[in-house]
Structures are given as structure tokens and as C-alpha cells.
Amino acid sequence: MLNFSSAGRAVGLVAISSAALFGVSACQAPVNIQDADVPAWKGKVLPAASTAVLEDSGKILNRDPLVKESANVPAGNYTLTMACDGGGKAYFAVSSGGSKITDAAAACNGSLDVVKIKVPATGSVSISTSSVDAPLIFAYHLVPAAG
């Protein structure tokens, strides 16, 4: 004869166990940024750009800005495409010839953020990348605007 209270307890125990396992798997720690494979991640999130005049990717492990510069960038309109992952935001300060052109930001959720900028005169362009939400990984490229 079937004992419903025992069967009910077994079903309840299975349900509780399943919920506990689901809860533990949902709360796993995010990928360790220090061990992240930045080139592989960049290849997945940032579109290829053979015409990039300036590009960079890497890890921000503290709040110190990382600066990359390119000399002799022609004046004109450009598109800055940015991505980051790890939580929070990454900030990108673009300057030309020592004068600020724009500040841009990307949400660190693996999606792309795109900003149109104008380089006023041919010369050096630099991009300073930083975050108060370190550690995180980032990638960007600056390409001539289409059209």
C-alpha cells in the first residue's frame, strides 16, 4: 500500500534539492578578470576593423587610466566602437593634439557602444581608458566614418 505522506515527503525533498542546486549554480562567481583571455573575448564582441586608426584592448585591474596614441590621424569624421565586460562602466577620453574631443562610456555587459566623433585637424589622437569599477576588460577601435 502506498503511503501518501512518505510519497509527499519524497516529492517535497526532490523539489527542495532541485531548488537548492539551481540557486547554487545561479550564484556562481563571474569569470576572473585577471585570467580572462582578452584577445578571444575581443574577437567575439568587437567587429573586425581593417581601417582602424587607433585600437586597444586589455584589462583594467585598478583605477589607473591606460593611454594609447596614434600619430598623424587625418582630420575627419570617425566612429569609436567600445565594449567592456566585468561590471560597471569603462570611460574613454578622446583627445587630439592635446585638446579634448569627447568623453564616452561603455556599459560593461559585453554589448557595444558607438560614438561618432570629429577629429578637427590632422595630428596625434589619444584615447585614455579608465574605470572606477575595476577590474574589467575592454576593447575599442576608432575607424573612419562611413559615407
Structural class: alpha+beta
Largest sheet: 6 strands, antiparallel
Proportion of residues in helical segments? 10-25%
Global morphology: globular
Name the average pLDDT: 84
Radius of gyration: 23 Å
Give the distance, in angstroms, between the N- and C-terminal Cα atoms.
Answer: 80 Å
Elements, N to C (H/E): HHEEEEEE
Q: Helical stretch count?
A: 2
Poorly predicted ranges (pLDDT <50, ≥5 residues)? 10-30
Percentage beta strand: over 45%
Q: Note the quaternary state here.
A: single chain
Count the E strands. Answer: 6
In short:
The chain is of the alpha+beta class. Helices cover 21% and strands 50% of the residues. Strands 1, 2, 3, 4, 5 and 6 form a six-stranded antiparallel sheet that branches.
Overview of this structure, please?
The longest helix has 23 residues, at 4-26. The relative contact order is 0.25. The chain contains 2 helices and 6 strands. Strands 1, 2, 3, 4, 5 and 6 form a 6-stranded antiparallel β-sheet that branches. 21% of the residues lie in helices and 50% in strands. The chain has 147 residues and is an alpha+beta fold.
Write the layout of secondary structure elements.
Layout lengths: L3 H23 L11 H8 L8 E7 L5 E8 L2 E21 L2 E21 L3 E8 L5 E9 L3
Antiparallel strand pairs: 1-6, 2-5, 3-4, 3-5, 3-6
